[in-house]
Design goal:
heterodimer, A: 81 residues, B: two-stranded antiparallel ribbon, globular
């Protein structure tokens, strides 16, 4: 195994692991804020949770981008052809 | 392990390679069209249970369009509703054993994102003419023109990667867990995958609405600022 493949594998793992930190923190804050809002105004729980789901999926997309980068490195790396 | 980024051709129709995703797409289209025709054939003023259920779906789409775009939903109902129905059925087609959702392949998502990209231009030109649509690019200030141009391309790309990444990662994870653990272990993951699929279909439709609303309704704020400028 040459060093280029080694670097690709390591950086794929690093992309996923470090890329998951930011979205995890952001999702925690978003859920906390939504909980707070629901506790204050339980009658608007429907709207808040619907918006929360959309927001969470948006945030999660950042982690998904990192996963796509990792898969590109592993499966479609142009340098390893 | 096969790469999730490329799809193998099952057979060739002349020079055109036919992949599994293409067959899945056409099957879903056939199911949706046949279902729509079947429901439409026996419409009644006093609805049956099935008709009431479908009217509920249409009503929900209408109210979502009204909430998000703040316009009458009639011109956008068909496009947004079809987009949501197709992606929803495609994501949930993973329930059928042996079927991989077509949205887990890059080409299907690229086609969907391209459709949204073109629909934004189409609805924008239909609402405000070519000049009105082009004026939306300078909407906060003319300094934003290059940024808005780049954004209209990158947001299409991000829609494509978002849908592809979410659906593909679900399929991929289930594959990995299934190869590591036994028969019944991936079931919670599959349930999560169904939730993700539904939410992603909803988000795709919502984003399409937001982009179209930006292209259609952005001339009102522009008109407001010009009137404000002349007022004092």
């Amino acid at each position: 195994m040459n060093w280029l493949a080694l670097v690709s594998i390591v950086s794929a793992a690093m992309a996923v692991s470090f890329g998951a930190i930011g979205p995890a923190l952001a999702e925690g804050r978003a859920v906390a804020a939504a909980m707070d809002a629901i506790a204050r105004q339980p009658e608007s729980a429907g709207t808040i949770s619907r918006t929360l789901f959309v927001g969470l999926a948006m945030i999660e997309t950042m982690a998904i981008y990192c996963l796509v980068i990792a898969l590109l490195l592993l499966f479609a790396n142009p340098l390893l052809k | 392990m096969t790469s999730p980024l490329e799809s193998a051709a099952l057979f060739h129709l002349g020079p055109v390679p036919i992949t599994e995703a293409v067959i899945g797409t056409w099957a879903i289209m056939a199911v949706l069209v046949a279902g729509g025709m079947l429901i439409r054939r026996r419409l009644a003023l006093i609805p049956s249970a099935t008709q009431a259920a479908f009217e509920l779906i249409v009503d929900t789409v209408d109210s979502q369009i009204r909430d998000t775009m703040r316009v009458e939903p009639a011109p956008y109902r068909a496009f947004i509703g079809t987009l949501f129905a197709f992606i929803f059925v495609a994501n949930w087609s993973t329930l059928i054993p042996g079927v991989e959702p077509p949205t887990a392949h890059l080409e299907t998502d690229a086609a969907l994102a391209l459709v949204v990209f073109l629909a934004v231009i189409w609805f924008g030109i239909r609402a405000g003419g070519v000049g009105g649509y082009l004026a939306t690019f300078a909407s906060p200030s003319p300094i934003m023109i290059p940024l808005n141009f780049v954004e209209s391309l990158t947001r299409t790309f991000s829609m494509l990667v978002r849908l592809f990444g979410n659906v593909m990662s679900g399929v991929f994870m289930i594959g990995i867990v299934l190869s590591l653990a036994g028969l019944l272990v991936p079931i919670p993951l599959m349930a999560l995958d169904l939730l993700t699929g539904a939410v992603q279909a909803y988000i795709f439709a919502i984003l399409a609405m937001v982009f179209i609303a930006g292209a259609v309704g952005a001339e009102q704020p522009g008109a407001d600022t010009s009137s404000n400028r002349t007022a004092p």
